[in-house]
Amino acid sequence: MAEREPIFNIPGVVGVLAGLMIAIHAVREYILSPETDEQVQLAFAFIPARFDGSPAASWGIYPGGTAGDVWTFVTYAFLHADWTHLGVNAVWFVVFGSAVAWRFGVIRTLLLFAVTAAAGALAHLAAFGTQFVPVVGASAAVSGFTAAALRFIFQPGGPLGPMRLPGRMAYEVPSLGLAGMLRHPTIMAMIVVWIVLNVLFGAVSLPIPGAEGQQIAWQAHLGGFLAGLLLFPFFDPVRR
Q: Which CA distances in Å does 53 have to 56, 63, 130, 161, 216?
C-alpha cells in the first residue's frame, strides 16, 4: 500500500492540542456559569497583576497562588475569548503546527508549544508591567510554530518548496539559518506581513470580527514568534 502524504493528515499531537482548546472553550461556553468561568479565567489566564507584589495579590485573589503564577505562563493558551478567536488560532495551528509536528515528533512539539506560549506571556509582561491586563489564546504559540515552520517548509524538497519530496521526507529537509531566511524573498515577505498585521491590529486597534472591544496582544504574538524562530535549532532533530 502506498504511503499516505502527511500533508493530508493532522499529526496526533496537533489534533489533541487543538481538540483540547475546543473542548475547554465548549465547556466554558455551554456548561460553566459566568461566575465559575470568571474563576477559571482568574486561575488560568495570564494576568501580569499576579506579580505586582501587592497585598491583594498575596491574599489569594488569584487562584493557584505561587503554582498558578507558574502554570499560567502556558495555560492561558488554552483559553479563548470567543469562537472566532478560537477558530482562527485552531486553523492556523493545524496548518503550521502540523508541518512542525511531522518534523519534531510528540515530545518536541509539546515542549515548543509550552516554550513559545511562555515566551509570549513574558513579552506581554514586559509590555504591560504588572497591570491588570489579562491575555488568553494560543496566538503566541501559534506564532512560534509559524516561525519554526518557515525555517524549512520552503526549502528544496520541503512541503512548500520546489521538487517536494514524498511523504515524511518532505518534513526532514535541512533547515535554513537566519542569514538564509533574510535572503529568501518569500519568507521575508511572510514575516513582514505577519509583523505589520499584528502591530496594526493591536496598536491601531483595527476592528476585527469577533474581537470587538478586545485588545489584541500583539506583543505576546511577537514574543512567541521570536521564540519559535530563534530556538528552533535547539528543538530540531534534523541536523543541518
A: 8, 15, 9, 50, 26
DSSP result, the chain: -PPPPGGGS--HHHHHHHHHHHHHHHHHHHTS-HHHHHHHHHHHSB-GGGGS--HHHHTTSSTTHHHHHHHHHHHGGG--SSHHHHHHHHHHIIIIIHHHHHHH-HHHHHHHHHHHHHHHHHHHHHHHTTSS--B-SSHHHHHHHHHHHHTTTTSTTSTTSSSPPSGGGGGGSPPPPHHHHHT-HHHHHHHHHHHHHHHHHHHS----TT-TT----HHHHHHHHHHHHHHHHHH--S--
Pick the range with the lowest mean pLDDT from 51-60, 65-74, 84-93: 51-60
Per-residue pLDDT reduced to its tens digit, 140-174: 999 999 999 999 999 999 999 998 998 889 999 99
Q: Do the Cβ atoms of 74 and 86 come closer than 8 Å?
A: no
The answer to whether 139 touches 120, Cβ cutoff 8 Å, is yes
Q: What is the spatial distance between Cα 132 and Cα 47, in angstroms, rounded to a whole number?
A: 6
CA-wise closest residue to 90 among 20, 5, 148: 20
Picking from 167, 142, 32, the residue whose alpha carbon sits closest to that of residue 78 is 142
User: Is there a contact between 122 and 223 (Cβ–Cβ < 8 Å)?
Assistant: yes
Measured between alpha carbons, how far apart are the two ends of the chain, in Å?
A: 31
pLDDT in tens, 201-222: 655 443 434 443 445 678 899 9
Q: How far apart are CA 180 and CA 151, in angstroms?
A: 9
pLDDT at 180: 92
